[in-house]
Design a protein that fits this description.
The chain is mostly beta strands. The protein has one domain: Sandwich (Immunoglobulin-like). The chain is 14% helix and 41% strand. The protein is built from 1 helix and 10 strands. The strands form 2 sheets. Strands 1, 2, 3, 4, 6 and 8 form a 6-stranded mixed β-sheet that branches. A hairpin with a 2-residue loop joins strand 9 and strand 10.
Length: 160
C-alpha cells in the first residue's frame, strides 16, 4: 500500500512540475539553451480626439521578455523583439550585473541620451543577485549590450 501511495505522489509531483514549467513561458532554443520568458501584456490605445479616426478602442500588444543572467553570462546572444517591447534582465547569478548598451565603457550604442554614462539603455549600477532591471526598446535596430562589470558577457537585442 505504501508503494502505491509513493508512486501516486511521485506522479503528481512530475505532472505538477510539467504544468508549471509549461505555464511559465520559458522559451528554449533549438540548441537546448533557455532564451528567456515572454509575457504578453495587452495595452489599450485610444484615437486622438478631433481626428478622422473612428472612435473605437484599438488593442495592441506589448511584451515583456526576460533575459536571465547567470554566472556564465546572459541567457541568449541574440533576442528578437518588436518596438515597444520591454526586456527585463534578471540576475540569477552569484555576482552583481550591470546591463548597458555597448560599447564598453561608453554605453552609447543605443541612440537615446540621458543615461548615467551615454545612453538611457544603462542600468547605471550593479544589479544584485535576485534583482532585475527593465528597459523598453522603442527604436528599431540591432542593439548590442554588455555587462559593464564583466564586459566579456554580451548580447544583442534586435528590435523590429
Amino acid at each position: 500500500m505504501n508503494k502505491i501511495l509513493a508512486v501516486i505522489l511521485v506522479l503528481a509531483v512530475v505532472i505538477l512540475g510539467g504544468y508549471f514549467l509549461l505555464k511559465s513561458g520559458v522559451v528554449q532554443a533549438p540548441n537546448g539553451e533557455i532564451e528567456g520568458k515572454v509575457e504578453e501584456t495587452p495595452t489599450m490605445g485610444m484615437p486622438v480626439p478631433g481626428t478622422n479616426t473612428p472612435e473605437m478602442i484599438v488593442e495592441t500588444e506589448s511584451r515583456n521578455v526576460i533575459i536571465i543572467y547567470t554566472d556564465l553570462g546572459y541567457s541568449s546572444n541574440t533576442l528578437n523583439i518588436k518596438a515597444g517591447d520591454t526586456v527585463t534582465f534578471e540576475n540569477d547569478s552569484s555576482l552583481s550585473m550591470w546591463p548597458a548598451s555597448a560599447f564598453h565603457p561608453t554605453h552609447a550604442a543605443y541612440p537615446t541620451t540621458g543615461g548615467c554614462l551615454g545612453s538611457t539603455f544603462d542600468a547605471c549600477r550593479g544589479i544584485l543577485p535576485g534583482e532585475s532591471w527593465s528597459f523598453k526598446f522603442d527604436l528599431a535596430g540591432a542593439w548590442k549590450y554588455h555587462d559593464h562589470l564583466k564586459p566579456s558577457y554580451f548580447g544583442t537585442v534586435v528590435v523590429e
